[in-house]
Amino acid sequence: ALTNAFTILPRKVTFRSADAEKEYDALPLTTNEVTWTRQDEAGPGTGVLRAEEGFLSFDVTGSQTEVGSSPNDFEIVWGEGISPRNYDVTVEYGTLTVTARDASGLWIAYPDPFYYGGTNICPAVTVALTNGLGQVVSNLVEGVDFTVAYYDNVNAFDSPYLVVTPNGNFADGALTNAFTILPRKVTFRSA
């Protein structure tokens, strides 16, 4: 009997997490899809591997909430009976990208009118992010998500206004809103 040795090489496989992009909405952007490409004697192949196929799964942890980009990180979870030594693995991370949102979709509320009091009048401002249906998705925090500046806000019948400037999650900068200062009602009575 003649005995010959032969070599079994690891299969070359590339796993890549998906890219995803969306406009800022205060919610995390995630995607769990991982694609694979193999190169072996049968030639290249591609496809999507999902956990229900049983032999491996992916723990995808990539997440992006604020405007910017980050890698769509993941780890391979090898199934029982599958040896990672049988694979020459390359891992590539997709990119999660959140783009700036148009600030005109912000909902801005404050009390109005005010009465003259001799000092600066600075209404407390509520700013919220809304969806396409006008429903509030997230309340924004002054000093974190936006700043407010006040102008011509002392005298009655001036043209007082406030300027809300959202942070970098919004594309088009400041929003100007007028408010009203009315004369204080005073009654003088002689003795």
Could you describe the 3D structure shown?
With 191 residues, this protein is an all-beta fold. Helix content is 0%, strand content 43%. It is built from no helices and 17 strands. The chain has strands spanning 11-17, 20-23, 34-40, 43-48, 56-60, 68-71, 74-78, 87-92, 95-99, 106-109, 114-115, 126-130, 136-139, 146-151, 161-166, 175-178, 181-182. A 4-stranded mixed sheet has the order 4-3-1-8, with no helix packed on it. It has a 3-stranded mixed sheet with strand order 2-9-6, with no helix packed on it. The chain has a 3-stranded antiparallel sheet with strand order 10-12-13, with no helix packed on it. A hairpin with an 8-residue loop joins strand 15 and strand 16. The protein is rod-shaped. Residues 48-52 have low confidence and may be disordered.
Brief sketch in words of this structure:
This protein is 0% helix and 43% strand. The chain has strands spanning 11-17, 20-23, 34-40, 43-48, 56-60, 68-71, 74-78, 87-92, 95-99, 106-109, 114-115, 126-130, 136-139, 146-151, 161-166, 175-178, 181-182.
| Strand segment tally | 17
Q: Poorly predicted ranges (pLDDT <50, ≥5 residues)?
A: 48-52
Rg, Å, rounded: 30 Å
Strand content: 35-45%
Q: Overall mean pLDDT score?
A: 88
| Helix share bin | under 10%
Largest sheet: 4 strands, mixed
What would you call the structural class?
mainly beta
End-to-end Cα distance = 133 Å
**Order of strands across the widest beta sheet?**
4-3-1-8
What form results from the Cα inertia axes? rod-shaped
Number of helices: 0
What is the ordering of alpha helices and beta strands? EEEEEEEEEEEEEEEEE
